[in-house]
Amino acid sequence: MATTPSITHGGALEAPPRRRVPWRTVVNKLLGAILVLWAAATLCFVMQELSPGNKAIAILGGSGARPTQHQIEVTEEKYGLNDPILQRYGSFIGDLATGDLGTSYQYKQPVTSLIKEQVGPTLVLVFVSTILAWLISVPVTLWTAGKGRARSSLGSGFEAFFAGVPPYWLGLVLLVVFSFELGWFPVTGGTSLDALFLPSLTLALPLAGFLGQVTRDEFERGLKQPFAISARTRGASEGEVRRKHVLRHALLPGITLTGWAIGATISGAVLVEVIYSRPGLGNVLVQAVSNQDLPVVVGITMLVALIYVLVNLMVDLLYVLVDPRLRTQKAVA
Amino acid sequence: MKSSLKTRLTALAAFAALAALTAVLSACGGSKSTAAAADTTSVVGVGAGAKKVEGTPVKGGTLVYGTDREPTCLDPHNFGDMPQTYVSRQYLDSLVSMQPDGTVVPWLATSWDISKDGLTYTFHLKKGVKFTDGTDFDADAVVANFKQILDPETESSTDLVYLDPIWKGAKAIDKYTVEIDLKRPYSPLLDVLGQAFFGMESPKAMARGIKENCVSPVGTGPFILKDWKKGQQIDLVRNDNYNSPPADANNQGPAYLEGITWRFLPDPSVRWQALKSGEVQAIFSIPPEDFAAAQSDPDIEVQQFTHAGIGHYIVLDDSEPPFNDIKVRQAFNYAANAPAAVESAYQGAYPVATSAVSSGTPFYTSKYANLYPHNLAKAEKLLDEAGWKKGANGVREKDGKPLTVKWIYSTGPGETPPAELTLYQNIQAAAKEAGFDVTLVPQPQAKYLEEANVPADFDAEPTYWNCPTPMCMYIVSSEETYNQLFANMSKIKNPELDQTLLAAAATTDRDKQKTLYAKAQQIIAENAYWVPTYPEQSLLGISKSLKGVWIEPSEGEPVFSDAWLES
After folding, report:
1. Which residues contact B263 (CB under 8 A, 6 or more apart)?
2. Residue A289: its chain B contacts at CB < 8 A?
């Protein structure tokens, strides 16, 4: 377990499992993913049913509207709100299966086209934030982990602080300091490139804190592991040991966490998009929730569920790439 | 129309505290933001209408305008929320243009005749006007517009509230004459039609259905809707062929501006900073905490507009105890000290209201304003008379029941900003001294909609209603609208009030209207049906480089077709 495969098993055992695609595992994972999505959809439907308030009123504008009784009746008929529950569940799941998420109560547009419009800026934000988080946390770990008490506590202090900072607070502080006071970045945000930095940083810093904490633990443990010691005895420099051996080992939990983090970052994007007046799913979701635009809420929930599922699939695969031990074990299993 | 005109955080409720924190931080950072307004101003009934402006207009440039809320549909016939009317004004023209005194001047209609019985309105239309998709503007187009408004598929709310009770039909008499027939006389019709909510749209565009029309409506207006990037902005470009401005516009040709970037900046402090940094040249709704700073800033012009309508008020459920007793209602008004509550909550940025309609409303009279100045002794006396006796811990009781008031309010994002909640708490504390046990009950939007519904499950509830005519007293108080959602929320049944208002609608004689609308204001004030708080305000912050902006009076829509940017 502790030493490199070439010593225990010899070169011959290593090569074949690396190229074999574990089809059964893939199929199982896919079936599992579909099951998770179906469960999410059903939960969404139940939530929709249990949410209070008259849906026809929400469609006609909520508390801002003064609908007539006739209008309410016409609307209930048009949106099938009075159909039996099983019929509505059936058509909901059926529509979902064909990629139809229904029509937004507020915008009168198909939910899929709303999501298509808005998903881009959110994905860019989430993607850039995640990369930025890694770009921050890896150097901090490399420079501070296992480098004496002072440096180490500086690093973990940084991580603990940012891991604990709520993104909305951080967002406001960054906005006030760098946009309002220093004027380095635009106040009005939007999708321009210079308006991407502060929102990304807002999401990246807390994430970097989280990733750093986990990576540091693993890194410090790794430094004492036999594989690190054996690398040192082979004459590798300390920097080389840290970068090539220990870091690689220490990244694993962080990568797992990234799968979760991407999902969490999407939720964080809700707040950040509002603070920085950025278009995106977060902004749409806030509007939808407040106006009881259930099809949009459900649509975005399903999308986030889908992203979670896909990212977790990817993480499983990444695992196999980063950790050679898993390749062997999977092939054997 | 109910709307968010106050400064509202569209973010989550948690932002409230953080915004305060931002203010503190920016103060630490040496910014000029001022804590409290020094001395203000009860601005009354001013702010609207085209004004002659000094200087020579310059052609060109794109205005960036920062506003708070984003419309859900750009066709204002659908739903009918304030953000829709503001932006529609830029690309739609209406039949007439309302003046601050409640009269109208020609716009797409050059003249009109009203039959003696007040049931038939004949409009003579401007010739040679085209929608920006090339369709002719004519009588058929006007008829098609009313047809679309009344079609349930359009899901109209605001327009329908006006038309549904009075509408009989519209027909084209010839190519440029259109006749509107009513079920009963309705003299405020012209004011109502002046709102951008009744802007005229291309029949060809409307025929595509509401789904298409919500994202790309087509009008005859000074600007053309080019693109809507949801969550960010609407792009408007100049209509170079514009030939149908209202008679009261300074500029009778195409707009000077090349276009408008209509930016959505829901956070008030972001909006204000964007104006100060020059990223935008005009903003809607200056935050109350920055109002004094805006007024003293030499680079910023402040335009304050008082909306016509009922204004902001606290609905009392007049159909059930305790507020079904006029003495209890009057006592609550005496005890509430609403003017002081508004002053302290909005730091002087908002004027106070003490009358049935806002001071910006045509036929407003100050005669029945301020009937209930703060007077604890009178409140106590009225409650004693009504049989509510002081009990333990100061709460009054009658037949063993405490004098509790369930006051609900919505916690939907942006619905109840911090200053608004302070206002409620101020009234709560003041009413307690007279023996009212007011409980403020925050409700998530969905729950709120349910409880504010018929039958209502509340004793008190804040709301507001902007409209260009005092006739909307009828909407919020008549037997006809008693069961209509969010209309007669106070559950008022008063035949004398109904008849007075219907008589006002039946006459086009302005003197008679004046008397009758005054009488209606008197009835409502004397019965203390609700607690008036403040008139709805629109506060525009305008950079000195932007000239010629004015606010039209029907709904407070900013008019940019007369505006230009100085280089």
Report:
1. A188, A190, A277, B64, B65, B66, B67, B232, B233, B274, B280
2. 413
